[in-house]
Design goal:
By secondary structure, the chain is mainly beta. The protein folds into four domains: 2-64, no CATH class; 70-209, no CATH class; 220-345, no CATH class; 355-444, Immunoglobulin-like, CATH 2.60.40.2550. 2% of the residues lie in helices and 49% in strands. The strands form twelve sheets. The protein has a five-stranded antiparallel beta sheet with strand order 3-2-6-5-4, with no helix packed on it. A five-stranded mixed beta sheet has the order 26-24-23-29-32, with no helix packed on it. Strands 1-7-13-9 form a four-stranded antiparallel beta sheet, with no helix packed on it. It is flat and about 85 Å long.
Length: 446
Amino acid sequence: MRYNYTGWKVLITADTGKSWSEISTGLPSNIKINHLAFKSNLAVGESPQYLYAATDNGVYKIDLNRIINSSFVINYNMLSVPDVVNDFTKTVVCPTANSNASWYDGATQTYKTASVLENGKGYFVKFPSNGSVTYTGWPFYSYKVKVYPGWNLIGSISGTVQTSSIIQEPSGIVSIYYKYVGGYVSTTVIEPGMGIWVQSSALGYLTLPTSPLPKTVTFEDEYLQYDRISFTDANGEIQQMYVRNSSMRLGKDRDSEMPPDPPGFTAYFKAGNYLQSVSPTADQKDLSIITKRAVFPLTMLWDIKATNQINYRATIDGREIEINGTGSITIQNPVNGTIPLYANAENIAMPKSYVLEQNYPNPFNPSTTISYQLPNDCWVTIKVFNILGEEIKTLVDKYETAGYKSIDFDASNFPNGVYYYRLQSGSSSSSSGEDFTDVKKMVLIK
């Protein structure tokens, strides 16, 4: 889904409120406001739509409703209601939908249907064609939602949320967030109107605050460097999957489990996820792909990067083929919906120089990963300092072999602020002559 918003409308009256004219430029910045008021006859629980401003230049009426337009695509979308609207009935919120609204009950870990939608919940809704839905109502810029152990399908708020700014109670119960774009994709940004999957390790709460933070490197950015395999069924529903060489320096297998199946087509690796690692030290790996609720034929597309040094072979409709470079093939009838796929990897060359990477994610809350490269076996020290230059944590202080390395920094017990981390490499011990030193800045935002 795609999103855009309009701000508050400002109107002025010249006949004591009998008629109102919209001012396209908004409320003038140089006027003196003498009095502000809502209408006096609000019903219990009713949100005020208009704020009246009495000024020396006349009376203005400010329409407090926000309008959020969300475009959707044919078939299933995962959405939420990002405003407090006047009517939450599904047929009013999504008038062109041709399916029930399915939400996920975290307490029972099962799908249920709803005829009346709610703020704070995510829903699967199917549409017969591409289009858009308009939400008009009272905006809310913070929301506290209860999550249960296991999977939870939550909603958005009226502003953009960086997942690193979400307050978790207790801390650390959620590590990854999924959106649905014809298939599950992890995300670090929650836009108004999105539904989002989270997997919680315990009973707790998530508070979503509006957070206009700078864009950081996302999981999607990292995945651009992986091999990609995708499937599109005859209805146009898509699922993408990724494979990495385990000797790559990039991150770790964050996606050990996928959210519950969507109502429509889905596909995933035999292991039950959409990100797999292939080790150069192991024999060929079985990456067979399971498809469910597909409308055949399927189109399989791939983008295999030579730098990842992974070789693939697949069995398609009884024929064995090699998968390399970029390409596609039509699949008519896989046995039991399973597409056999096998891979083996080669070792990726060792680093040619010392490198200290920028931590990821950054900003972060409460933990982040620091990656670094060692071209030789050496003593490595990584320490963290506060903005005053005081040492607060030693992450590494040992002899390490050459290669691509990473270490996690958990800042749960430290306050918000700017921190610095320093890598020093030595010949044989932490007190010996240094071969390399580098310092980088990171930001903790809770």
